[in-house]
Amino acid sequence: MSNAVAAEEHRRGLSNLKSAKTFCQICSAFCGLGVVTDGKTVIRVLPDKENAFNWRDYCAKAGTAPLVRDHPKRLRSPMKRVGDRYVAVSYEQAVQEIAAQMKDIIARHGPDGIGTYIGNPGGTNVANAMFQGGFTAAIGTHSVFYVGSIDQNNWHVVAEKMYGSEMAGLIPDIDHAKCILLLGTNPADSGMNWMSITPQGWERVLAAKEKGADLIMVDPRQTPSTKKATTHVTIKPGEDWALLLGMIKVIFDEGWIHQQDCAEAKGIDAIRAIAQSASLDELSQRCKVDVATIRDIARRFATAETAFCEARTGVALNRNGTLGEWLSHVLNLITGRIDRKGGRTYVKGMVKNYMQLFNKMAPPTTRRSRIGNYPAVVGAYPTAILPDEIRTPGPGQVRAMIINSGNPVSGGPDGARLDAALGELELLVAVDMFQRESHRHAHWLIPGTHFLERDAFYGISNLYEQPFVQLAEATIEPLNGVKLEWEFFRDLALEMNAPFMGIKGLNPVIRFSKWLAGVTGNPRLAFGPRWIWALLVKTQAQGVKWKQLVQNPGGFFFGEKRYGDFRPSLQTKDGKINAAPDEFMAILKQRLAEPMPATDAQYPLQIISRRRPSMMNSWLVESGKHPRNYGEFVEINPADAAARGLADDQPVSVVSRLAQVQARVRITDDMSPGVVGMDQGWGSRLFDPQGGEAPEQVGVMRNTLVAADVLDELAGAPNLNGTAVQVSAAG
Fold first, then answer.
1. Phi–psi pair at 284, nearest 5 degrees
2. Where are the beta strands (DSSP E) in 64-202?
3. pLDDT tens figures, 390-408
4. Helix (H) or strand (E) holding 317
5. What is the CATH number for 408?
6. Residue 50 domain boundaries
């Protein structure tokens, strides 16, 4: 970094540049970064070439950091809606008035009258998420909603039911795998990061393939990733479970099971019975994969020396997402691929047993939603039911919302209906760097911070491929004196006289700490996330000292990669892996009994989504740094285009039973017949409450087409991959 700073100083004729290390907080890859500033402006953001854990590079998202941080439409102060415009106010006024409104709503509707939603940027901002949780615990609301209910709830549900903790992470051991089976993922773009952090994951997959590993990829379309596979299996969207059950059936029939792992697990006989009773021909018809292919990939996977199967976002985004995720784990289990070299492995992390610690901090709950009777997953209800939770009278009706760094109108299903419901709230508070589509009706806009402007800590959980921790300090002061999001939630709880984190007696300590910070001029004396991080390290950490974290801003390894720690860490009541949870078995039996899915004559195509490296959901549209405007197009197979008389780049209407959007056709062999694709995250408007310019809108909001009444019964996820549509010439 010193060489980079010196070169930049020489180029600009400056002598006051500073460098610092941090990590990107846009996605879960958490790539190490070096940042050059002049104290007020971000000059450059570079990959941290010395980072011991990360891939020593970054993608297009991190490179846009200076553009986003200094964006002209970024919120620079709290703003209150007055009539049809917004006016800037102080933080003190905003906190006082919001607190007064919330206390009034709680008095009339109870704590559940206040709802919260946290999006992707809030989730990767660890301090923000932690302190929003502290606020919800303070007021006692259960009306909590989370972006994970759109695309990752299935992961948490399977982890809790099979292993006893919603955070039971199993990481792919890429370098030692002889067979790699990936479903619903495009790691050439995602980098093999979703619910685990695997630096240079895709490059290592390709390196393993070069050494002879068998790479099998299952996806309804061709992607840059499938084109590198040994075998690309095209599949009907939403029917991955049928392929996996077919493989499991073949493996049981042929006796290719791991006897010890099957003997030590619970429910194997039930899995064997349902697999052997299923018809392989019918499973083949359901998933549109021929029987010979199912048998072939089952043999290759089961007989490989080492192997792992991983189902990812594409599997999660449909009504059968939990079945697909569960059966991918069953496939690993019965073939001896769990917590073994070359399989799906467990990394203990900084604490002795993270699954146990997580269960103590956030115990699994049996609480279910009043609308639809869906389970609370990681403490949150499905985003899809939020409009009905707002509009349905009775105990628990949501009358106020805080949308924290999220955009559910764009990211979730049936955005038009959610937008209308948000407009009916008594109070809507948006905490974000920008006013986005979901904040159109906001009564209050509370500015958020850029990740370069805040401290961050990671390494507590077990989602990292190797034991690694990093404590990064803010590289530059927040723009215009914007407060950190966690400060807003802390101060709002204090103003409401609600016990922060639900801990009686904590508020006086917080108030005293704030006073002490003020009189000493040392802001770190005020109660904040560093207090909690330091406490966790001092009371829970193994092989890590707080002083080490402070002295090593680029992070460090604190242990070696190991195998065999998973089963001793299980949190199930009997200490065994539960291969056949009752809820999963019931839904599987129901699916097998359902008639074979028929093509809808009115809407004969299935739409699937795609994400690009330059965006994270609808976040970073505002950067303007995209190779092209992907959000304008619907991709379609040549045969389907010809049947509709469509030409490349032609304007078309894409219609579902719910809605219609306008797009342009891109004809490509990458799409399977009967399947069309549109990019996720585009079409959300960017407003300008400070400057008054007209809203910007780039691309099409494809999730408008997706209904909120077709959900995964087990996880509450919407059918983003598999909704039936028709494509025809516009007009």
1. -60, -45
2. 79-82, 85-88, 114-118, 144-146, 171-172, 179-183
3. 999 999 999 999 999 999 9
4. none
5. 3.40.50.740
6. 1-63
